TrEMBL record:
Keywords: Membrane, Transmembrane, Transmembrane helix. The chain crosses the membrane at residues 31-55, 67-89, 95-116, 136-152, 158-177, 198-218, 230-249, 261-282, 288-308. The lineage of its organism: Bacteria, Bacillati, Bacillota, Bacilli, Bacillales. Pfam families: EmrE (PF13536). This is Putative multidrug resistance efflux transporter. It comes from Cohnella lupini.
């Protein structure tokens, strides 16, 4: 139950990303600044936390040993995840991006065969390939249907280009996030805690964010004070608090693709949180009735997925495939 609670809390803080990204778009902020400043501003906070806990040297040593691995999976897990989401904010409202983002739940299930777990047997430890949990994936299709309903509700307001640029980048990001997160969990092998892992991935993805900032500066000059301040809020709320909560939840659920999928399913709460935040804080229209129906379907799918994945019978029915040690 605790991983699910942490996941829901993370979804609340994650929703600030979608709301404030829209605010920066409405104030004509460059989307590349929106993406890069969040991670650049995360570094001082995370450095202070990890150093205070006395874990900074251990992290830096681990990163030095596996430098290219850290760079590669951090680029995917943070870079390929967040830059497309910020780009999509130029074309769709935040609550709709938050809804489309829930495809990450299905992505997490489909990616299961790329990962392994170690099981102790009478003959010693054996690596077992995870398998796709087809029944749980079927429940997740309710979420996908809800996303489709939300997109359909906006079809009359947006031209085809807006729908394409608002949906496709988010779909790419939805696969990149669980892939990068889970691969870094494998790399860390329990040696590093959630704070260290978030800081390490932020530092490893820093070349991308610096490059994007330079390009944004060439295009538009320095970011406005408003965009800078909002980026700090996103960095603390979404980048630090939400990410650490979510990574903590996935750490608690590691070793089971079903439990990991259930934790990832809690992120559906971002849809309602983002929609409520935008309506209350920004000059945007209230989502139509059809949009709320789509949101309800997403939340219902999240709930069913969590309940189904958490049942003892389904937790045992992994059906994984043994491979050589």
């Amino acid at each position: 139950m605790r991983p699910i609670l942490y996941g829901i809390l993370a979804s609340f803080f994650f929703s600030s990303t979608f709301v404030l990204n829209q605010a920066m778009k409405l104030s004509d902020g460059n989307w590349m600044y929106t993406a890069s400043l969040r991670f650049i501003f995360m570094i001082p906070f995370l450095l202070a936390i990890v150093a205070f806990r006395g874990n900074l040297k251990v992290l830096l040593t681990d990163m030095k040993k596996r430098l290219f691995t850290w760079f590669g999976w951090s680029f995917i897990g943070f870079g390929v995840m967040y830059a497309p989401v910020c780009f999509a904010a130029e074309y769709e409202p935040g609550w709709l991006i938050a809804g489309t983002w829930q495809i990450t739940i299905i992505a997490g299930s489909l990616l299961a065969p790329l990962f392994y777990k170690v099981v102790t047997t009478p003959n010693g430890p054996v690596r077992i390939r995870e398998s796709i949990h087809w029944k749980g994936l079927g429940v997740s299709l309710v979420i996908l249907f809800g996303v489709g309903v939300m997109q359909l509700s906006q079809a009359e307001r947006f031209v085809a280009r807006d729908l394409l640029f608002g949906v496709l980048p988010v779909m790419i990001a939805a696969f990149a996030y669980p892939l990068g997160n889970r691969k870094m969990m494998e790399v860390c092998e329990g040696r590093l805690d959630a704070y260290q892992r978030v800081l390490g991935m932020t530092l490893a993805s820093l070349p991308l964010w610096i490059g994007m900032s330079i390009y944004a500066y060439v295009q538009d000059g320095l970011p406005s004070s408003g965009q800078t301040g909002q980026s700090v809020i996103v960095a603390v709320s979404s980048g630090v608090i939400a990410t650490v909560l979510f990574f903590k939840a996935t750490d608690m659920a590691k070793g089971s693709s079903q439990k990991l999928a259930a934790v990832e399913a809690t992120q559906s709460g971002e849809v309602v949180f983002a929609a409520t935040g935008e309506v209350l804080l920004l000059p945007v229209p209230v989502p139509a009735a059809m949009s709320w129906i789509g949101m309800f379907l997403v939340i219902a799918g999240m709930t069913l997925h969590s309940l189904f994945s958490g049942s003892p019978r389904n937790a045992r029915g992994v059906g994984s495939k043994k491979i050589a040690k």
